């Protein structure tokens, strides 16, 4: 994959009246959040039969971006003393690039590290707040005419809801529609709900940074859960007392296997903490508009400290749901005006956890009800795919993360997971995990599976007579754990008691990836 940068410039609001606006006040939630970039990627295929002119398309995107920045002017500015955003004439770094290859082929590639070349800057690393832009953008044009619009958003003022609202406005202006904000006075409502302090104690800021950023080599993988898998997880996660939602069941499942993988990789059991971002806008009464700028979300915190080998999924689901119920109660107190109590309830537990040292932290963010790609139509139709990506990092970066988003087809959910490299290696070879996490496979000319998008198959086969396990995905959608024995010829064979009724996944006892069947993974 080759990405060639063709231009770099700063795009500013088209109206000079914006430059005269007073500084945009940060909220207390913005003040305590450490600055770092997080990426948002929108992929658009060229419509069939269209004759889009690339030069005209790129010129239109810049023009409409300037109009959108008139509405979302703080995104064009810079942070001042961790209290406000000003200098709106600084603008947004804007990069254009050409990508050799077809967009559809690139998205389907097994190795996804190439995606880092589509990013305008390095995400998930601590950045200096005062000099860093709030937003950077890279427009990537593929040989096939497809386009990837990639944003890196500073979490100092831009959460996922803010980014989604901004993209809808930009897309509307590009289509020639009205992308204006209905009530601009609500843009800074966050600073009224959570008035900023003159200064935040440095020890508090340092504790938050230690909590969220860790040393180590991290790697990212994508896992897809279809509707059947999620329904099965809901059934396993329910108890006599409650039935979890699709999201709660899946989050509990991912937390469980990330926790188990960490235990195997580190050789010890550590307390495990799961945080979930909960949108504040939809929980307040009256609801806040989606276009309000800032980190208007709370953090639901779940903790699991047991060193027991067996981790019950229904118990984790209960902890996940309980944390959300607690934060809903905290929001109710916030409505009564007790901001200090709300902030104390939110962040003191995090600071206490950070002080403990050896703790596994998994930060989960669900975009299932936040990012609606259907409304981000620049005039070429809705995006083929949207998502987030983290490059492999070997230095100080944001903690382990789980992002959930819709697959775009059906009712499936895609999880983009970043973990310590050793932990990820354990997770992506866990047979029980792979029964639910389906694999996208690449086949050779004969239809045999060559590799999986997420799995690293062993380079050396097990020794003759050694039993190992694998997962077989049947043509009817069922996934089965089977045990394999290598015979003297080096062919993996299933013991007779492990075959299905008609030997459907075997050929004379030899496991193959035949018609309608595929290897999903294996584990010695």
Helix percent band: 25-40%
Extract low-pLDDT stretches: 439-468, 473-478, 483-524
- CATH topology label of the largest domain: Chloramphenicol Acetyltransferase
Please tell me how large the radius of gyration is.
24 Å
What's the CATH architecture of the largest domain? 2-Layer Sandwich
> How far is it from the N-terminal to the C-terminal residue, by CA?
33 Å
Q: Taking all residues together, what is the mean pLDDT?
A: 80
Strand percentage lies at: 25-35%
Structural class computed from helices and strand pairing: alpha+beta
Extended strand count: 25
Per CATH, the superfamily of the largest domain is: Chloramphenicol acetyltransferase-like domain
Query: CATH top level of the largest domain?
Result: Alpha Beta
* Multimerization state: single chain
Determine the number of helices (DSSP H or I, runs of at least 4 residues).
12
Backbone shape: globular
**Which sequence of strands runs across the widest sheet?**
1-6-7-8-3-14
Question: How many structural domains can be distinguished in the coordinates?
Answer: 3
Major beta-sheet overview: 6 strands, mixed
Family: Belongs to the plant acyltransferase family.
Pfam families: Transferase
Region (Disordered): 488-524
Keywords: Acyltransferase, Transferase
């Amino acid at each position: 994959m080759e990405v060639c940068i063709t231009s770099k410039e700063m795009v500013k609001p088209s109206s000079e009246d914006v430059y005269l606006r007073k500084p945009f006040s940060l909220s207390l939630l913005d003040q305590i959040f450490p600055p770092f970039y997080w990426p948002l990627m929108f992929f658009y295929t060229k419509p069939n039969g269209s004759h889009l002119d690339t030069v005209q398309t790129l010129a239109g995107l810049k023009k409409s971006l300037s109009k959108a920045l008139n509405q979302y002017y703080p995104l064009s500015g810079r942070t001042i003393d961790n209290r406000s955003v000003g200098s709106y004439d600084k603008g947004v770094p804007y990069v254009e690039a050409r990508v050799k290859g077809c967009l559809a082929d690139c998205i389907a590639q097994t190795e996804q590290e190439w995606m880092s070349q589509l990013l305008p800057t390095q995400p998930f690393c601590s950045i200096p707040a005062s000099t860093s832009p709030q937003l950077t953008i890279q427009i990537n044009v593929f040989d096939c005419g497809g386009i990837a619009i990639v944003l890196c958003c500073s979490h100092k003022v831009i959460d996922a809801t803010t980014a989604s609202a901004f993209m809808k406005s930009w897309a509307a202006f590009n289509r020639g529609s009205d992308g204006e904000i209905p009530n601009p006075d609500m843009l800074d409502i966050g600073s009224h709900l959570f008035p900023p302090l003159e200064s935040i104690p440095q020890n508090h800021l340092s504790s938050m940074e230690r909590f969220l950023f860790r040393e180590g080599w991290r790697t990212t993988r994508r896992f897809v859960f279809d509707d059947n898998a999620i329904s099965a997880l809901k059934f396993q996660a329910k108890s006599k007392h409650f039935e979890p939602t699709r999201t709660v069941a899946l989050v509990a499942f991912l937390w469980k296997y990330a926790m188990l993988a960490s235990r195997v990789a580190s050789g010890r059991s550590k307390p495990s903490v799961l945080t979930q971002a909960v949108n504040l806008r939809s929980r307040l009464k009256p609801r806040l508009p989606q276009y309000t700028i800032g980190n208007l979300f709370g953090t639901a915190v779940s903790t699991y400290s047991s060193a027991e080998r067996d981790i019950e999924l229904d118990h984790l689901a209960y902890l996940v749901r309980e944390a959300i119920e607690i934060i809903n109660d905290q929001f109710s107190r916030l409505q009564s005006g007790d901001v200090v109590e709300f902030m104390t309830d939110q962040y003191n537990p995090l600071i206490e956890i950070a002080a403990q040292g050896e703790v596994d932290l998994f930060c989960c963010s669900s975009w299932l009800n936040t990012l609606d790609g259907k409304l981000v139509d620049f005039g070429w139709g809705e995006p083929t795919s949207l998502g987030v990506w983290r490059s492999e990092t070997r230095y100080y970066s944001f903690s382990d993360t789980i992002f959930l988003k819709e697959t775009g087809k059906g009712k499936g959910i895609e999880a983009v997971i970043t973990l310590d490299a050793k932990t990820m290696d354990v997770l992506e070879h866990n047979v029980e995990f792979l029964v639910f996490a389906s694999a996208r496979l690449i086949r050779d000319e004969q239809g045999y599976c060559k590799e999986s998008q997420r799995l690293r198959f062993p380079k050396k086969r097990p020794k003759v007579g050694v039993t190992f396990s694998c997962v077989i995905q049947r043509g009817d959608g069922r996934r089965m754990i089977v045990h394999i024995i290598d015979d003297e010829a080096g062919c993996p064979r299933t013991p007779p008691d492990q075959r299905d009724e008609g030997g459907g996944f075997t050929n004379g006892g030899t496991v193959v990836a035949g018609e309608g069947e595929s290897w999903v993974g294996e584990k010695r």
